[in-house]
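Continued from yesterday's entry.
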Amino acid sequence: MAFNLLLIFKILVVHLLKKSALIAVVAFGFTLAAAQTGTNSQKEKSITVDGISLTKTFSSNGGNADIEGVNNVITINGTVGKLVVSGTGNQVYGDKVSSIRVDGTGNRVYYRSAPTKTGKPATAINGYDNSVQKQ
């Protein structure tokens, strides 16, 4: 009788471990699937990014860029006319930017130069803990 109870106990433990492992794999898979979601496009002179945890690089020749979402890391090589960043925790790197608007929380925009007399882009910073800095 004790042997049967021990065998039943072992079977139950193995069954529970298998279910736990399956749940962990499914949960991990959902986490990975949610880690990088969103859309991005580059049409003619316009760059649009809307997503979560995307890491993308674009080239621009004077067009505008609109970056929205959470924790994206976006690099734009070339000249950007108007750069708009909104959301939370985005990092955007631009070569030459004429104007920058930042909305949201914890967004960081870095630029190398601006095609203006002052060498600084026109900036509008709204929200909390956002910044625009020259690299």
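--- second protein ---
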Amino acid sequence: MKGFTLLEVMVALAIMAGVVLTVISSVNYHLALATRDREETIALLLARSKVEELEMPDSRDAERKTEGTFAPEWPGYSWKTERAATSVPGFRQLTVTVSWGAERRSVSLEKYQAQKQ
């Protein structure tokens, strides 16, 4: 007789199921990584834009505010700024932190600026 036995078919199906499960879990993992990278990139770009906004000469109103959101363009993202003196005279540290998501993930940028005389 020619053909496959039931045992051979079952072993082949078990191997195929293992391969399919491995591929699906790998795809899910990499999609999660891509999503996380996208969110971090958006947060980093938003933080950079906030730092640039705070550096503009006409940003007196922006300097008074220490936190806010990027709504309506980016409703899930919020920002917070902190200014601190440094150990080097004549410089101050500006930290901008952007938070997002249910887990409140965050990215922080630090910039050292010469103090205005």
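The mean pLDDT is 90. The longest strand covers residues 74-85. Will compare against the first tomorrow.
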